[in-house]
Structure formats: C-alpha cells, structure tokens
Amino acid sequence: MSATPAECAPSLESQSFAFESLVAVSEQTTNVWSQLQRLLFLQDYNTRVVLFGAAMLGGAAGVVGVFTLLRKRALMGDAISHATLPGITISFLAASIWGFDEKSLPLLLVGATVTGLLGVSTILLLRGLTKLKEDTSLSIVLSVFFGAGIALLGIIQQMPKGHAAGLESFILGKTASMVVSDAQLIAAASITCLAGCSLLFKELKLLCFDENFAGSRGYPIVKLDLILMASVVVISIVGLQAVGLIMVVALLVTPAASSRFWTDDLTKMTLISAGIGMFSGVIGAAVSALYPRLPSGAMIVLFCATCFMISMTLGVKRGLLVRSLRRLKINRSIGRQHFLRTMYEVMEQKQQLGLEQSITINDLLPARSWSKNRLATIVSRSAREEWITRIHQEVRFTKKGRFEAERLTREHRLWELFLIHHADIAPTRVDREADHIEHVLEPEIVAELELLLIEDQRELPQSPHGFDHWKQTDDSKNGNQKPNGNQKPSAEPPVSRARTGK
Amino acid sequence: MFSSSDKQQDDSDSAPLLVEDLTVAYHRKPVLWDVEFQIPKGSLVGIVGPNGAGKSTLLKAIMGLVPIATGSIKVFNTPYRKARAKVGYVPQKESVDWDFPVTALDVVMMGLYKQIGWCLPARRHHRTQALRAMEQVGIADLAHRQISQLSGGQQQRTFLARALVQNADLYLMDEPFAAVDASTEKAIVEILRGLKKEGKTAIVIHHDLQTVNSYFDHVILLNMRVVADGPVEEVFNQENLNKTYGGRLTLLEEVSEAMRRRERSL
Amino acid sequence: MTLDLNWNWMLDGWITAVAVVCAIACALLGNFLVLRRMSMLGDAITHAVLPGLAVAFLISDSRASLPMFIGAAIVGVLTAFFTEWIRRAGKVDEGASMGVVFTTLFAIGLVMIVQTIDQVDLDANCVLYGSIELTPLDTIDVAGWQIPRAFCTLFLVMLINLTFVIVFYKELKVTSFDPSLAGSIGFSPAIIHYALMVLVAITAVASFESVGSVLVVAMMVVPAATAYLLTHRLHIMICFSILAAIISAVAGHVSAIAIPASFGFRSTSTAGMMAVISGLLLFLAAMFAPRQGIAVKLWNQLALSWHILGDDIVALLYRVDEKQANQRTEKAWIREVLLCSPLSFTVVMTWLRIRGEIVIKTNELVLTDQGQHRAQNLVRSHRLWEQYLLDQVGIDPSRVHPQAEQMEHYTDKKMRQQLHQVTEKPSIDPHGSPIPEERSTK
What we know:
Low-confidence stretches of chain B: 1-12
Structural class of chain C: mainly alpha
Helix content of chain B: 25-40%
Largest interface: A-C, 75 and 80 residues
Distance between the termini of chain B: 31 Å
Structural class of chain B: alpha/beta
Oligomer: heterotrimer
Largest sheet of chain B: 6 strands, mixed
CATH class of the largest domain in chain C: Mainly Alpha
Strand order of the largest sheet of chain B: 5-6-7-3-8-9
Number of helices of chain C: 19
Distance between the termini of chain C: 65 Å
Largest sheet of chain C: 2 strands, antiparallel
Strand order of the largest sheet of chain C: 1-2
Strand content of chain B: 15-25%
CATH class of the domain at 40-52 and 84-249 in chain B: Alpha Beta
Number of helices of chain B: 11
CATH architecture of the domain at 40-52 and 84-249 in chain B: 3-Layer(aba) Sandwich
Strand content of chain C: under 5%
C-alpha cells in the first residue's frame, strides 16, 4: 500500500511552496512609488542583476529565434525546453548520491544540456528513420521527456534533503531569485550565442534561405543545422531560470515573429527582434518586481505578446493596417482603370473621342455592372485626380486622362487577342505581373496582334509610350510611388516603339 | 567500368563534365539507370525529357546532393568536391521561400559567400561584383527590393545573377525558362550565348521542345537513361524524341517495383 | 531489497482505472491529431486552456465540472482560431503562430491563478502534472457505489469521444486525408476541425486532474503515433492506439510503484511513468514494426543480401558447369570469386544445404537437381535482361552485365516470360552464351 492519503501529503505541501515561488519576491511595501524610484535608478543591486539578466536573455533569444523561425522550426524550442527536465532531475539525483552540492546551477544545466541535445537528436531520428512527421516527433519528445522528468521529480520530492526546492522554479520560472552568478551565466551564454550568430550570419542566412544551393557550394548543412539547434538548446536552458521551461519558447518565437512585420531585411529583422526580446525581458522583470503576485516569466511573455500584437497591426512592412491600405489602393487603381477604359469605349462607340467632347454619367452606367453610387465615387475621385473634368452630369477627359485611357484600352484589346490566339503558350510564357503589355509579350507578337486588331475593324489606340511624361506626372500626383510591388517597373527602359495601328 | 585513363580521349582531361555509369536510386527505386555522357567544353547543353525522367536528379547527383548508387562523375577531370568553385548552380525557382527577408542583392551575394570566406562580412568590392552581375541580367535597378516583390521572371534572373557572380566555368541550370516572361527568356538566352563566347559551358534543363534547336548546340535526351546525346542537329530528331517521350520501359519499372517489394517483404 | 508491490485494490485499482479511461479518451482523439499533422496544436491547446479554467473558477467559484468544461472549450476553439488567423492574416509560419498563441494564453492563465490565489483553489502545478494519486479520495455516490469523481468525468468524456469517432468516422477519415475533397463533397472540414478542437480541449480539462497538461499530450500523441507505425488502416490504427493507451496506463501505474520501491523510495508520479511507458512502446514500435521498423529493415537487408549471395553461389556453380571449365569448385575458391565475408558465407552455405540445393562431394560444391533448377532460372533471367537492356534500353553491350546482375535476383517467372516475348525469344545473350530454358516447378 503506497498511495495512502498521508503519503500524498508531500505533494500537497509542495503546492503551497510552488505558489511562493510563483509570486515574485517583492516586499509588500505600501509605497509603490519609492519602489519604482529604486527600480528606475537601479539603486537596488539585486534589481540591476535581474534586469541585466533578463535583457541579455531576451536579446539572445530574439536573435536565435529569427533563424529558427526562418528555418521553419519555431516549435523546436518548445520540445527542447521540455526535454531538459529529465536532465535537471538526473543531475540533481546524481549530485546528491555522490555528495556534491545538488543545487549547483552549472551542474543542473549540464544535465539539462545533455537531455536537451538528446531530445533534438531523437526528433531528427524519428523524423528521418520512421514515417512519423515533424509535428508528431516534436510532441512525442516533448511529452515523453517531460514525463520522465516528472517521474524523477516525484522521487526527488521524497529525498531527505528537503523537497526539490530549486527544481520547481525551472518549470514556471522565477526571475526575481536570480543572483549574480546566474546573471553571469546568462550573460556568458547569451554572448556566446550572439557571437556565434553574428559570425555565422551569412552562412545561417544561406542555410535558411536555400539549403540546396548551400549544399552545392559545399557548406556542411548538417553541421550548420546542429550549430543552430545547439544555440536553441543553450537559450532554452539559460531561459529556464528566468521564464521557466514552458514559456521559454515564447522568447524564441514571439520577438522573431513580431520583427518580421517591420522589415524585409534580415539584418534589421535580427536587430528588431533582439530589441523586442530585451525590452520585454526588462519590462516584464521590472513589473513583476514592482507589483506583488505577478509571476515574472508570465509577465515577460505577456510583454512579448503585446509587442507582437502591436507589430501585427502596425508593422510598416507586413502589418495588417499597411496591408489593408495597400489593398485599398490597388482596388482603387483597378477601379480607375476600368472606369477610364469604359469611358473611352463608350465614347468610341458614339464616335465622340475628341478632347473637348463630353459624355453623361448616365451613358456610362449601363456599360458595366456598377451601381450608381459606386460610379459616382469613382467619377469624383477621378476628377480630383485630374483624369477627367466634370461639369454637372457631364464628364470629359483631361489630356492626361485621355492618354491613359488610350493606353489601357489598347493593352486590354491586345491582351484579349493574345489570350485568344496564343492560348497554348499564354500560361507559361507570360509574366502577368508586368504592368505594360510590351514587357509581357515579344515585340513580334505585339505587332502580329496589332495586325489582327486592324483586321478586326477595331480602331487601335496609339501606343502612348511617346507620352511618358504624362505617366510620370500621374505617378507623382497620386503618390503612387510603387511601394508595394504590384506595379513593377520593367527592366527595360521605356523606349518608344513606333508602332501604330494606322 | 573502365578507368578514364583511355589515352585516346585526350580532350576528356579538360571536359567540363564526364558522367560514367551513373545509377541513382531513391529508396532503391532507380531514378537514373546507367547514365553516361560527356560534355564538350564551351557548349550549351539542353537536357530534355518527360516529367519524372530524372532530369533534376541528374543535376543534383552531379553536385553530390543526392547519394549515387554506382558510377563516377568528373567535373573538369576531378571529383565535384574539388571543382566546386568552377560550378555555378541555378536551382528551380520553386525550391525556396520567396517571402524570406532578403533583398535581390543579398541573394546574388550568396554566390560569393564561399569567396568571401567563413565568418567574414561582405565588403564593398563584393557588392560591386554582385551589382555587375545583376546589371548583366538587367535587374540592377531592383537590387534593393525584397525578393517577394520581384516578378517571376525577375526572380529567375536573380538566381541567374547569383550563379553568374561566381564566375564559374560550368553552369547547371534547373529549368530557368519555366514560367518566365518573354523578355526574361530572351535575356537568359543572350546570357547563355555570352557564356559560350567566353568558352564556358552551360547545362540547362529545358521543357520547350520548340526552342531546343535555336537555344542549344548540344542536347541530352533523358528518360531514366540517356536515349541520345550529341550535337542538336544530329540527335534531336523525331525518332529519338519518340524513344524519349513514347514507349515506357514497363519491364524496367516492374523490376524496380519488385526490388522494393522484395526489400519489404523478405 | 524485495520487490513488494503494495497493491491496494481500493486505491491502486481506482487509480489504474482512472488512468486507463483517461488514456483511452486522449488516444481516440490523438489518432486524428497525428493524421492531420496537428500534434503540436494538441500541445498548444492543452497549455492554452489555463485561462479558461481560471475564469471558470472565478465566475462559478467552485471546482464544478460544467463551467470548467465550457471555459476550456471556448479557449480551445480560440486557440485553434487565433493560430489560424495569425497564420493567414499575418502570414506567419504555422509553428510560430501556435507558439505565440499558446504561450500568451498560458501566461495569462498563470497570472490569473496567481492573482486570485486566495479565492481559487487551483494549483498551477496540479494543472501541469496532475495528481492522479489523489483521485480515489474524492468520490461521489453513483447508485450506491462510491466512485471517484475523476473516473466518472473521464468515463463520460471517453464515451463522448468514442461516440464522436464512431459517428463521424467517415467524415473524420475524409477530412483528415483530403480536406479539399471533403469540402467539395459537402463535409465541412472547418466544422470537423473545430469540433475536434473542442473535444481536445474538453479532454484536456478532464485529464488535468489525473495526468496534467503536458502529459495529456503524451497520452494523445504517443499511443496514436505508435499505432500509426504499426498499421496503414485507420480503424486498426484506432484499435492499436487504444491498446497502447491501456498498456501505458496499467504499466505506468505499476512501474510508478514498483520501480522507486526497488530503490527504497515510495511511489513516484504515475502520470510521468505513463508517459515514459508510452514512449517505450513507441520505441519498440519504431524498432520492430513489421516492414517499417528500423531493426526489421536492417534484418531484411541482411536477409536479402544472404538471399542474393545464395543466388550468386548457385549461379556460379551453374556457369562453371556450363563452361565445362576445369575448375575445382571448392569453398575457398568460391569465397574468393564472390568476395563475401566468412560469416555470411557460412550462413548461406548452411542454408543452401538445408534446402538441399547443394551437396559437398570430395570437398567440391555440387548442385543438386533442385539447385540446378534455381540456378538455371537465374541464369536465364540474367541473360534475358542483358538482351533486354541491349535491345530495348539501348545500353552498350559492354555494360549490360552489372545491371542484369542486379535485376536477376528480383525476376519472377512472369517477368521472364514477358522479357522473352519483348526481346523476341532470343536463344543467345549479347555475349553469345545460350539462354537456358525455363524450368518450372515440378
């Protein structure tokens, strides 16, 4: 009979202990202000140590996280950090059996490193040798290793030398208890990782971007991968103390994912990610030190998450706001193009193509499936942008608008013809993202299409390339600086090719 | 089987690529059977064959990216490992994630990484070198764009520039003409001709049979084995094409299937 | 030290029962997590339900089951939803979006628990690694029987999961295999997806008390992965996963008592040992699964190489015989020609003699009639292949031999007939040797 209620008591006792460890150690002084002051001016030596450690950890995790994110192994850190638990408990047991100091941090971390690396290799082996996929291998290692750790922890709790005092804090983290030697360890590990990543910056970049090419140039892919995974192991392990093994993955993933919203450049991304990591580390640790009952690890993670949310909405490169603005702009430009072309075609039908001739809005309404309101919006916007002039219900082209309308109509007709007559090669040989038909099709094909158009008895608007100055004014006026890659300037200079349908 | 010391093949010493007796198997299912060919120096070589004929595998095997079952590959009469600096590789465009946060210039610079050396940062002259290569393919003005903002053709040119910047003597290109616009296609052809003029060699996987005659001077017809190889005008004919694209070698497939089954159930 | 189990049926019996139902409930859903490559989403949800629990506690002010389950289900769906939303709207890699979501939710839950520590009797450690040992103490009265509450809850959840899997078996199968096909024939993959997520969340909550949040992942993924390694059929996989779950649960509790006892400790965490045992089962499956197992593959390779060596020996003897060469076919000579290791040679020789294909006469190896039969068909295959490679594939005659040498070992009678037809019934091979007749059995 082993599991009597009385003997379950240790685990109950340890529960209350765990809460103590969760609650940030901060004297419950009523005067928060004086504490803030102490914190702000770093008067407290202990606070300085804690903030320094958290900052170093956040920075290093941010940098390593960028590479794991780009290597599409973001959750590897999760599995690795869980896999460290059995290592910690085994070294604790071993130390107490052979009479070493079982709470010596370096010893525990050596154990953590060993099982962490064992976890990585188990993942790679499972994925490589069996038909299990990556995600399953990750969760197997994560849960089985953690289970082994928990089982060993159950034994340690019965050991005579008190409960597994320090060990509990590895799971949920306890930044506030950081001492100088811990901070030194974190600093050393972080600097090693930072140095490694910056020295191998371009090699890691190549590895993450194009593994095959790296292989063809003779880079040792497996070794580079191992270096990257080893830094993940190191970060997870030093992060155990600060945020605990469950949440260290947040430090590896969240800053990196946030930074991607701000930039398209890997160097900047790395710096931003490191910055976010540091910031969250410092603020999280500070807030947890200031107020009672705010566990430091959780606070650091929450500040990371806040940064992520801000980045996701406001990020200047891929943030939601920027992207929806961009989409709006594209939709407007498409709407404008449709409008100008329709107006041209309607006027063409009425044979009223002169610059001084005008057309009523009601004439345009049946030409496309647009509602009256929508048409009115497009008309007033186009008038504002000086494509057309509007007098009451009548609209007429401006000079600039007329050229643009000609160009659009001509390209539209050529494009339609091309699709009809060259349907077989169209999908493979055509770069639809180019914005001018001359850049999409070979000149010979364009000439051939133009001939077809004439046979078709349709008038072909002249290629407006001679009027490139109009295009430029239009670009600058609309603020259409082509920031979004949807309108690509072509590689060729816009040479006027004298080709007319006449 | 035979050592390459046959003295009558004196020009094979400088041959950019000599493949002998090459067999490649994925999970014991052979992809390439007994491939054997030699590429003359300064030629533009097209590799043509149906889907699944092992064209990409052949290039990867040449570079040692897939394990080979038997055979030998000599690049400039040495194993690939030693001739790496002389070989430029243009992978398929689909093989990478174009959302990756790098600029076109960064990608082209990757071709110089070996030259720059481990752990060292790129210097100014490397940058100018890369820009020059981009100019050559006509995308110098896009150097600072993030790669997802390039069109398909421009992405392909970026890859080409990355290979060109290495200043290699032998280029291996995996479908550079796939899904590119006409002007890019033309630019690539121009570049290939320029390479030939400089006495360099290019091996290009190609899909469009219509253009083989005008683009290449040497062709390898591949369907798990080399059906024919030689100058375009000699071997690129209907009979060889039928052999390449037509009749599948059902018995070969059957025996490789049997090999796999046997392996499992023994 | 004697190995004394100290088994108490009232306590340990119930603990095992709770463990078993918990493991089955988890494993049932785990099959689909593994098949849909969503194992990590299971991990994410089990962590992320913490704030749901805390809120449910705060609102209902009790450990009542219903509010807990509702809270967990809501947060579970939110986790799946946010992960998907961040992945799509923010163009973030799926793993990363999952990492962001579940760590954030877990942190929120932790803060909530710590903040309300006076009002809520909820222990983060208990959520993390459970306390199955305490479950028999908290009983409720069911028809006059004192049954542990945890057992009732988990049994109910297990029934729900079982019903779900049985009723929606077809839908689960098709949506796991090919979501777009499922969409096109009218099953909504999204509904099945979120239903699965709700059940994962509910199962996680029900299991917290017994195995804790991380080990729920072990019970979900590991038995299912073990089953996945053992079979290709979905319904068999589900049965195997249940079996693996039961074994892990029972053996887990027994070893949690027995193993520490042999070192002089009292019992350790049953949940932890369950995870370890399930890991061991997975290891065994990975090594010894029929066909796919790593050890099995190695053995197959060895057996295949022996088989080929046997082929080579009889074929060599046949050829010596055919050429009427004046060569003494002694063991040493054969080993020299075939370049084989002494060990495999001995093994293969013994095997050939047992099968009666070879006898030893005056130190020479001689084919029996049966051996002759095997050899003749082999040589026939070899020479037909040479002809085929030359004729149909167009390989140079000087190079067909090594290819044929490889393929001859895999060629059956039917294939030989086809070869015979395709190569227009040759009587000699490219090197001029005669192609022997087919010898059929009996």
